[in-house]
UniProtKB/TrEMBL annotation:
SUPFAM superfamilies: Cadherin-like
Keywords, sorted A to Z: Calcium, Membrane, Repeat
PANTHER family registered for this protein in UniProt: CADHERIN-23, CADHERIN-RELATED FAMILY MEMBER 5 ISOFORM X1
Protein name, per record: CDHR5 protein
Species assigned in the record: Piprites chloris
One of the record's GO cellular component terms: adherens junction
Gene Ontology MF, one: cadherin binding
UniProt xrefs under Gene3D superfamilies: Cadherins
Record keyword Calcium present: yes
Domain Cadherin intervals: 18-129, 145-249
Length: 290
């Protein structure tokens, strides 16, 4: 009597990842659809020789939708949406490997791999002149104000010019890279009156100014490693007469009278003289005709 025995395969083995934990560093300027983790690094095996079904989830809030797998049977992870270092710098992905499809009535066994994604900042922004203000809630754009300063006519300033709202200063907004900034004047410098220190941004005079005409300089801040990353700020320099005397009031104390119940913008009159409006006058010996 010949007896043939067929051994039935029982689902008694969990899928196994060769590397249950992985870490990948991804530049924020990585192109969409680029492979982040190759299939060979993520494929799971099953001693029961079952077909493996994969599912990928993100565990960090706000990072859903950036990474995906190529298919339910293909665990290769690719970039699905453009990254922004200012939005998040890392996330953690969980890759599930099941030996039964989702929704199957048969019990399934599952393995989990953890993939840590670390976002690295890329050199994507031109320099920012400070101070600057963000455009609404967009922290990728910072709008700077023009710089202002004065020089005295026919007088040579030895020290760097004092400007408002502050000295000429720019930074690399890709702050983890923090590339060196180089300054130069690219416009408005009539007769080469001014020069700017390439390293510090200090603005100095090369010669005296004999005309009362103002200067509107264009100062450029360029990254030392990439001349295509630059920004330009305007610097208005007004030419004025040197002030030798401070302004002063004609009197140290003024007295006025006002009636109750008067409408807004009614005159205040001199005390003791209800017919003459109170006038407060100042004078300056530098400007006798003003």
């Amino acid at each position: 009597l010949e007896i043939f025995v067929t051994i039935l395969n029982e689902n008694d083995n969990d899928p196994q990842f060769q590397q249950p934990t992985l870490t990948r560093f991804v530049r924020e300027d990585t192109e969409v659809n680029a492979t982040i983790v190759a299939r060979d690094d993520l494929s799971a095996t099953d001693a029961d020789l079952d077909i493996i079904y994969y599912e990928l989830t993100a565990t960090v809030q706000g990072t859903d939708g950036y990474f995906a797998i190529k298919g339910v049977n293909n665990p290769e992870i690719y970039l699905q949406k453009a990254l922004d270092y200012d939005k998040f710098q890392s996330t953690r992905l969980l890759l599930y490997a099941r030996d039964r499809p989702v929704g199957s009535p048969d019990p399934s066994r599952t393995a989990t791999a953890t993939i840590s994604i670390m976002i690295t900042q890329a050199d994507t922004r031109a320099p920012w002149f400070l101070p600057c203000a963000f455009l609404h809630s967009d922290t990728s754009v910072c709008i700077s104000s023009p710089y202002y300063g004065t020089v005295n006519i026919s007088e040579m300033a030895v020290e760097p010019l004092i400007l408002s709202p502050g000295p000429i200063y720019a930074i690399d907004p890709d702050y983890t890279i923090n590339e060196k900034i180089v300054y130069s004047i690219v416009g408005g410098n009539t007769d080469e009156v001014f020069s700017v220190d390439a390293d510090t941004g200090n603005l100095t005079m090369n010669k005296i100014v004999t005309s009362p005409d103002s200067f509107l300089l264009q100062v450029m801040a360029t990254q030392a490693n990439n001349a295509r990353k630059y920004s330009v700020a305007s610097v208005e320099i007004k030419v004025i007469n040197k002030s030798l005397y401070p302004p002063h009031f004609e009197k140290g104390l003024y007295n006025g009278t006002v009636g109750a119940g008067l409408p807004p913008r009614s005159f205040v009159f001199q005390a003791g003289d209800a017919s003459t409006p109170l006038t407060i006058m100042a004078a300056d010996e530098d400007f006798p005709d003003v």
